Amino acid sequence: MSYNIAVIGGDGTGPEVIAEGLKVLNVVASKFNIKLDFHHYDFGGERYMKTGKIISKEEIEELRKYDAIYLGAIGHPDVKPGILEKGLLLRIRFDLDQYINLRPVKLYPGVESPIRDKTPEDIDFVVIRENTGGIYTGHGGATREGTQDEIASQIMIYDRRTVDRCLKYAFELKKKRNKENSKYAEKPLHLVHKRNVLTYCGDLWYRAFEEMGGKSYSDIKRDYAHVDASTMWFVKNPEWFDVLVTENLFGDIITDLGAMIQGGMGIAAGGNINPEGVSMFEPIGGSAPKYAGKHMINPLAAIEAGRMMLEVLGEEKAAKSIQKAVTETCLKLKSLSAGKMGYTTEEVGDLVAKAIG
Ligand code: IPM
Ligand code: MN
Fold it and tell me: Which of 273, 336, 285, 292 is nearest to 108 (CA)?
């Protein structure tokens, strides 16, 4: 098969880690007879500082024509927080309707988790974060700004359709995992929310979850967890989880915790998925400007994002071969943290590429 991929290296260490990701993707493509055509875009902080442009309507339309988007990182120390995040990252997620944010939390063998006594057997789950709604919708405002009477609001908004399409993706993924592995099938699909306080949004999610589960997925076990309690269990009993589904902001928060228990930002990747359209894959660690140009950053998260991209494109064998190579590479690194790997960024890319053979 042949695919056109838009590549956005972005800011900070983004381009460096993406270069290693492309190295690995090229090796795996030739091994499995896949044709990958990469088209580079210079969206990000540097371009914004030079031209004042973030991304135009036409450029968004252009992105729609690709089979997938491969993103490094967005965020520049000289640009006010929010401008690039909203103007570029969230803009692409929203305009391309990438309504699922898929974040695997998997501890690879040889990787040290900060949670003592937990093994790869225990930490192996997936968080499905709703990716277009909730507080991220941007509904709200401020009045009497700058005075002692200032009022600000930022509203969590969900409609049934947005909730249902996310839940459907979650149930379908759970069904797939249950078939793959009986260990997964014993565990429930967890809905994570805060319905003891967010009685409107929480109730909407809970009822939709119970209804869909009862009607169409009665053979899948269901459970509910409050978001605060779930952070506790991520640390104490991560083995309880297989697939979790949650709203946007809660998902944002718990997946950073998830990234830590799987060994840190050096390995954590995510997919912004539109199951009917164009999806975008990224390491979730951000642009880490202090490491830029130092050959210290870990490219495994970007390589993992590339693996997820192939998996979603349907190239499962190629994706599995990257996973195997990443597993082997993890066993060789001293640590997954930037500057402590025992190898440079480029050398880690080479290790993975070589392991694919
Ligand atoms: C993430 C990031 C983004 C988010 C920011 C950069 C807008 O934290 O992808 O998790 O909040 O979604
Ligand atoms: Mn985040």
Answer: 336
For the chain, the straight-line distance linking the first and the last C-alpha, in angstroms and rounded, comes to: 20
The H or E element spanning position 69 is strand 68-73
d(CA 45, CA 95): 20
Burial of 320: CB neighbours in 10 Å, binned 0-12, 13-18, 19+: middle
Probe target for ligand 1 pocket from 80, 252, 257, 308, with the most ligand atoms within 8 Å of CB: 252
User: Which residues form the pocket of ligand 1, taking CB atoms under 6 Å from any ligand atom?
Assistant: 85, 89-90, 252, 284
Question: Is pTM beyond 0.85 here?
Answer: yes
- Is the pLDDT assigned to residue 357 strictly greater than 90? no
What whole-number percentage of the chain has pLDDT above 70?
100
Say what angle helices 160-180 and 201-216 make with each other, to 10 degrees: 50
Q: Which two tokens stand for residue 345?
A: 């960024």
Give all domains of the chain, ordered by start, each with its CATH number. Answer: 1-112+267-357 (3.40.718.10), 137-262 (3.40.718.10)
